[in-house]
User: Fold these one by one.
Assistant:
Number 1:
Amino acid sequence: MALAITLGDPAGIGAEIVLKALAHFPPEALGQFFISGSRSLLEDTYGWLSQRGQAVVHPALLQVWDHPLISNVRPGYPSSATGAMSFAYLETAIAAAKTGTVAGIVTAPISKALWHAAGYDYSGQTEVLACHTGGSEVGMLFLGRSPQTHWVLTTLLATTHIPLSQVPHHLTPALLTQKLELLVSFLQHHRGLAQPRIAVAGLNPHSGEQGHLGREEVDWLIPWLTRAQQQYPHVEIVGPVPPDTLWIGAAHAWWGTPSQHPSYDAYLALYHDQGLIPVKMLAFHDAVNTTIGLPFIRTSPDHGTAFDIAGQGIADPRSLLAAIHWAQELTTTGKIGFPAHTCLRGV
Ligand SMILES: NC(=O)C1=CN([C@@H]2O[C@H](COP(=O)(O)OP(=O)(O)OC[C@H]3O[C@@H](n4cnc5c(N)ncnc54)[C@H](O)[C@@H]3O)[C@@H](O)[C@H]2O)C=CC1
Ligand SMILES: NCC(=O)COP(=O)(O)O
């Protein structure tokens, strides 16, 4: 099935990692990809990368949905114009996915601050995807397959791009129920896990120490877990696990080292950095971000625009390559991207 790949912010490392990642595919396989970006950006990037002897695909081999650049772009010097370009790339890819031209989209990183500078009031690509597809019930899920053991670290964030101070207000039993539904559907339909084991992190140090270090666990999280377990008798739901120890077993499963700490099929983290610190420590170049709950597949590298290294030729394409491979895998494991009862409501 065809995939669209966006170039992300033109002043970031997007074009570089796309050209490097696609060099891993034989020329005859490139026909399945449509690049939503700027052809001149690909050509410039190809020019300076190939001069340095880097393995990159020639842009002439690529099908490009061309968005002519609206201003000169210098790697590492983003602006509201580059923010606007990255938004346009994404919109074209989403439109293609909605009409079925492609089965999924793989997005290179954008800068949220520059979207705001360009007048687009979204806190990330995930939120644009949710809005364009008519529903807000999506999940930000990170997947990383260990190169050593092939164990898959699967982490869903209950809350995403909000200030830390607002996390306790956003976390509610209803929100967690919604996220758990998405996660269970994903594990069953896309990962083939009929009876998954899911760990839910606590919010406070030591999961609140029986209310002495924070009351969220005793006031509603533990009662919610009891109800969730009754609602999903085929799923083992463990928690709230003190967040400082929850990922020890994951690290051992990732490296293949023996441990008495359990590992789980999936982790539900309550806020952005709680989930992403372990993901990026273990799997920075292997993990990918996927939006679940959409009627099509969307994956992205786990990293950002890396403006600090743009134009230097040192950007690592592995996370983007993993995002492409995961998109290919997920389009074949899910019949229509996601089961209708969770994703098609409102679309
Ligand atoms: N999917 C997306 O669109 C994402 C976008 N972002 C955005 O990216 C911007 C920059 O975010 P930061 O927190 O600075 O994170 P970042 O991931 O861009 O950079 C963090 C560090 O990792 C390095 N790095 C990142 N990707 C790399 C790669 N492929 N190869 C080698 N080194 C790499 C960077 O040079 C930097 O030192 C922000 O505006 C953020 O919102 C961040 C994460 C995901
Ligand atoms: N840290 C994850 C992240 O920033 C993902 O952003 P986006 O894919 O929603 O743009």
Number 2:
Amino acid sequence: MAAIELRDVRKSFQALEVIHGIDLVIPDGSFTVLVGPSGCGKSTLLRMMAGLEEVTSGEIRIDGSRCDHLVPSARGMAMVFQSYALYPHMSVEENLRFGLENQKMAKAEIVARVAKAADILQIGHLLARRPNQLSGGQSQRVAIGRAIVKEPKAFLFDEPLSNLDAELRVKMRGELIALHRRLKSTMVYVTHDQVEAMTMADQIVVLNEGRIEQVGSPVELYARPRNLFVARFLGAPPMNLLKGRLRAGETPAVILANGTTVPLPGREIALADGSEVSLGIRPEHAEPKADGLAVRVHTTEVLGAGTIVHATTTGGEEFTLSLRGISRVTAGETMSVAVDPRFAHVFDADGHTVGATDDWRADYLN
Ligand SMILES: Nc1ncnc2c1ncn2[C@@H]1O[C@H](COP(=O)(O)OP(=O)(O)OP(=O)(O)O)[C@@H](O)[C@H]1O
């Protein structure tokens, strides 16, 4: 087990810098998820930790020791790829043994490690098969097994579940969480799927264009996004945004474009009266109620346990509600919506969160 530390890590491909100075601590034993849109640099960052990509500048440490100059095999990290990367001409057992035999490990130790990994992943009955005789989920288990047998200081996962169908992905998500609980190893996991990030991580790192937007636990990032990017990236359907102006005062308020006033009792917002702001409301924090914000429904999605209502404000802004159960609301209808001010997010003109207290627990935990 080991902590991984990155200090001012940069990466350029030819003249183009794609990672712009990352400082990050991945705590020992944590399940840290690197998440962000396509091309933000998640894989490059992970590959630099693994040693598959050189750092252009900066330091990477594992267990306190510099490792950025070491070859991958000397770093004690094991990587699991989206493509599984199994050797097609070898049996599952040979795939599991291969890396260990290369290290000239004693035969008895190899046998013991392979047996243990096969037991953890429940792939004992597949050991004689070739990769082309495995399902996607089985292949991914073997790929994870190949990492487990190395008994690495840290596991690095690069979108390991994205080739699996939706149902299997959910199942494997649970298995990986259980594996982490069992092994207590440091795990770094790259995904562009915010649901995987929310459900698997103890620590989420949100990346955007080669920079860190925010680091924190899933609920911290959900309840207290530092900026618009994080606010919109986590949560599905995404947070609604309504443009308005701040009315400063003891009880500040946002005056929306259509004149609706949303008071924000208990907030201290250090912006001048009349400043341009955006009000962020998650779809689950709005409900039908008289004398609220008028919206016109254009689509409803009845999911059974809930109904997603897609609507437009009189100012022409999109507004989505997530209602419990099966809603009577139908397309074409106009409804009045109340927003719960405790869960309102306010962003300044640059997209930075303003007026949020540190204590989100009081409002969010039930
Ligand atoms: N070998 C390379 N040569 C040149 N540019 C590269 C190379 N590898 C990655 N890049 C660029 O670096 C940036 C980050 O790529 P990276 O693959 O790390 O992103 P990502 O967040 O993992 O994306 P995805 O989710 O699509 O895999 C992108 O702009 C990409 O085009």
